[in-house]
């Protein structure tokens, strides 16, 4: 999904799509939610809510997760 498609997608659908993408990247790297949370300086429950699409997170949270996954923020947003 590209950003041009976001306007035609509900916020809820976008957050759910992002959450599935985040989980896929996390699992590919062999990280648990707890590992990702620790590396990103987040709570495990926050990572869970993001992966389930139940949390509209900040750009700083996105940056922290990207760094923890050793990705650029753009790569993390490349749905």
From TrEMBL:
Gene Ontology CC terms: cytosol
Organism of derivation: Pontibacter cellulosilyticus
DNA-binding as UniProt keyword: yes
Domain of life: Bacteria
Family matches, as PROSITE patterns: HTH_CROC1
Entry GO MF terms: DNA binding; DNA-binding transcription factor activity
Keywords: DNA-binding
Domain HTH cro/C1-type: 22-76
Protein's UniProt name: Helix-turn-helix transcriptional regulator
Pfam families: HTH_31
């Amino acid at each position: 999904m590209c950003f041009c498609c976001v306007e035609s997608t509900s916020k809820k659908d976008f957050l759910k799509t992002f959450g599935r993408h985040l989980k896929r990247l996390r699992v590919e790297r062999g990280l648990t939610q707890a590992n990702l949370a620790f590396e990103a300086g987040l709570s495990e429950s926050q990572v869970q809510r993001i992966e389930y699409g139940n949390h509209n997170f900040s750009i700083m949270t996105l940056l922290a997760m990207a760094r923890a996954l050793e990705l650029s923020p753009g790569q993390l947003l490349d749905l």
